Prior knowledge:
Layout: E1 6-8, H1 18-31, H2 36-55, E2 62-66, H3 70-84, E3 89-94, H4 102-107, E4 114-117, E5 131-135, H5 147-158, E6 164-168, E7 190-194, H6 207-210, E8 212-216, H7 222-227, E9 232-234, H8 237-243, E10 258-262, H9 269-282, E11 286-291, H10 296-302, E12 307-310, H11 323-327, E13 335-338, H12 346-358, E14 364-365, H13 367-375, E15 388-389, H14 393-400, H15 406-420, E16 423-426, E17 432-434, E18 440-442, H16 455-468, H17 473-495, H18 502-507, H19 509-516
Parallel strand pairs: 1-8, 2-3, 2-5, 3-4, 5-6, 6-7, 7-8, 9-18, 10-11, 10-13, 11-12, 13-14, 14-15, 15-16
Antiparallel strand pairs: 16-17, 17-18
The protein binds ligand NAX, adenosine-5'-diphosphate (ADP) and potassium ion (K).
Adenosine-5'-diphosphate (ADP) is lined by residues 392, 427-429, 431, 446-448, 450-451, 453-457, 459, 484-485.
Binding site for K(+): 71, 134, 172
Keywords: ATP-binding, Isomerase, Lyase, Metal-binding, Multifunctional enzyme, NAD, NADP, Nucleotide-binding, Potassium
Binding site for AMP: 427-431, 456
Amino acid sequence: MFRGAFCIFIIDMKVLSAQQIREADAYTITHEPISSVLLMERAAAECAGWMVHTFGEAPPPFYVFCGMGNNGGDGLVIARLLRDQGYNVHAYMVHHSATASPDNLANQPYVQDVQSIYSPADFPLMEATGVVVDAIFGTGLSRPVEGWVASILHKINDGYGRHTIVSIDMPSGLMADSVTGHAACVHANYTLSFQFYKLAFLLPENAARVGETVILPIGLHPDFINNVETKYHVVDPRIVKTIYQPRDPFAHKGTYGHALLVAGSYGKMGAAVLAARACLRAGAGLLTVHVPQRGYEILQTAVPEAMCETEDQPTAFSAHFHEPFKHHQAPGYATIGVGPGLGTAAATARALEKLMELYHKPMVLDADALNMISEYPFLLQKLPKDSILTPHPKEFERLFGPKEDQFERLELLSAKAVELQVYILLKGRFSAMACPDGAVYFNPTGNPGMATAGSGDVLTGILTGLLSQGYTPKAALLLGAWLHGLAGDLAADDISEESLIAEDIINYLGQAYLELRK
Ligand SMILES: NC(=O)C1=CN([C@@H]2O[C@H](COP(=O)(O)OP(=O)(O)OC[C@H]3O[C@@H](n4cnc5c(N)ncnc54)[C@H](O)[C@@H]3O)[C@@H](O)[C@H]2O)[C@@H](O)CC1
Ligand SMILES: Nc1ncnc2c1ncn2[C@@H]1O[C@H](COP(=O)(O)OP(=O)(O)O)[C@@H](O)[C@H]1O
Ligand SMILES: [K+]
């Protein structure tokens, strides 16, 4: 089901810091109980099993680079287990420290012919078809890698494209919870990581380092996992299936709400059409789309299922555009999606202000609605509580200012959701969704084929459609982002990432829903 960077065996949806992972480790050792060396054996056995499964048919030579901590300990065990199964394994010890960790030492006697690396000159020649296993540093990395050890990481990267590089737990050199910047770091094809996502994996700046991530279960203690507190989470199929509500057999179209979309302007009616189609395909009962006069025929022709309201301005929205909306105060629209293709004229900004003054239920704000709020920041204070904002990184920067690095940006995202008491979805490979309580959820579905005009308009339509049906804003957000990405993944599977266009996401939304029933 998943494309690109995520192949998931099991997920604990919490994202833990390196320190919390050490605590999980210690808790498991005490409470399972299990010795640390056996826990290492279990973790390494999962990795060796994955490698046999992935490369076993045409076995390559394996080049296992071990560090001197427990990540290196994992590497030693992997080397032994692969040799035990008859594979051709070359093992190396990178002597970055004076002493090895106890569990690393305990495993050394069981791996013969480990060649020592004390300088770049000791780096081996490797066959082009080999698999490089990177077990030099894991979550214990405490500072950027420098000096000759950095040269070893660069030498491993020199083989990228010729060898397959598999990093154990973390690409060596990557900091789990802070900025790696330009420091030396392995660029992995695969990262086999234990039990939890690391925050660094979810940030765009590390995409090229992490490669495809495989989360392997290593049986860390469930009591610890259930009780540990974390701000960051990854959405998984279990939570999405819990959120999803099948339709009531006795439903009528009024059951699923009457949504209003305020979208489109001269030359940008496509945004309104895409959002409207997506809203209906997401399941809204009724939809009215409010467009400028010249958009009337376009909208009525392209989306006959939707009702259409126009206003007195031929090409854009004016201060009066909320007038028709007033008629629907009772029973009122279930929700409003506003922004796609709207334009940012001053009159439109005034109209947006009026709209936010009149409407107090959660709404969806995207694109030009966000751009107008950036231009007139006092509008931020008028956002209906629990509304959903969906900025892409540029819109986010316009709204809340630039940040030095992506960790700081995440902190800002969460702080703004708390301050404004809204949900904010920062778009990207792993869209980050911040909640009014400060929690941040990452959405793992989606692919680069979705980096195409209009895919954000489709998201606005989906979120509006879900709110309209009565999903809570948080449920709509998590489910909507998941469905949007999954529909994109299903479309790309059939027609390729390259030729995927926004309309395909809408066309595959039905299949994405069906996946939820499996
Ligand atoms: N709970 C878990 O997730 C488990 C983790 N295990 C493994 O244990 C790893 C963590 O082990 P450790 O805490 O021993 O840490 P690492 O093995 O990641 O690295 C620690 C070693 O690197 C040195 N070091 C740190 N930064 C350095 C730098 N910039 N330059 C040179 N040397 C540096 C330290 O002094 C220490 O010797 C995990 O990544 C994982 O591979 C498994 O063995 C078992 C279970
Ligand atoms: N590489 C990617 N992986 C996953 N999802 C992506 C990727 N690129 C874009 N997307 C998704 O596509 C949508 C693009 O939205 P946006 O930038 O607003 O596009 P537009 O303004 O053209 O409608 C977002 O939901 C984003 O998360
Ligand atoms: K590693």
